[in-house]
Prior knowledge:
- Chain A has 153 residues and is α+β, with helices and mostly antiparallel strands.
- In chain A, 24% of the residues lie in helices and 35% in strands.
- In chain A, α1 crosses α2 (29-35).
- Chain B has one domain (6-115): Orthogonal Bundle (Arc Repressor Mutant, subunit A), CATH 1.10.10.10.
- In chain B, 72% of the residues lie in helices and 10% in strands.
Amino acid sequence: xxxxxxxxxxxxxxxxxxxxxxxxxxxxxxxxxxxxxxxxxxxxxxxxxxxxxxxxxxxxxxxxxxxxxxxxxxxxxxxxxxxxxxxxxxxxxxxxxxxxxxxxxxxxxxxxxxxxxxxxxxxxxxxxxxxxxxxxxxxxxxxxxxxxxxxxx
Amino acid sequence: xxxxxxxxxxxxxxxxxxxxxxxxxxxxxxxxxxxxxxxxxxxxxxxxxxxxxxxxxxxxxxxxxxxxxxxxxxxxxxxxxxxxxxxxxxxxxxxxxxxxxxxxxxxxxxxxxxxx
Lengths: 153, 116
């Protein structure tokens, strides 16, 4: 839960492959369709390029738009367009892959932001409430108790 | 696929409302007046926040004199927290797959280079 209180997901992972290879894997549709969607299209990893993620024989199709592409270190795109079509004015999620050479391999730092824009309207207040983390730390254990209670009944 | 209930997310995304939920969980229940004692916002603001929480089902209320007494709906809260957690774990799974694919490509490339 740690990195989610502020409406941002943040993850790091080490990969035993060069940044060049990792960049290809995170940005090319033939790979995206292996690690994420059933099908993917994307012309090129370049700013402004528009692509599509599709699931279940295109029963579910969502667009994405590349924001930044600096091989082999940075790839960022927007997705979760509310109307299902690319709209630069819409509130969306921004996914960023930062690749850093590390011990002969690559460190991937993933961030996904936009939860705030998509509803965390008072997130600016967050800074004023430094103890908000205590809130999550407080009710997550309680949730555990609740789930245990459910499991026991 | 990400599947998040926007209203629920929005309701729980506000720090004041999270503090209110916390307080209600700690005390068992509360009114706008009792909550305003513990939080740096007016009773009116608290009442408004309680309205938001009520609309998404995170709290339920019963009349208590001239006020209403609120309790947290723990099942709905569990649902909200599970949604937060599942968005995170979806990325964990995707990153694991990215790792596997990239490492397989690297291995193939290394083997190819050794042969040359």
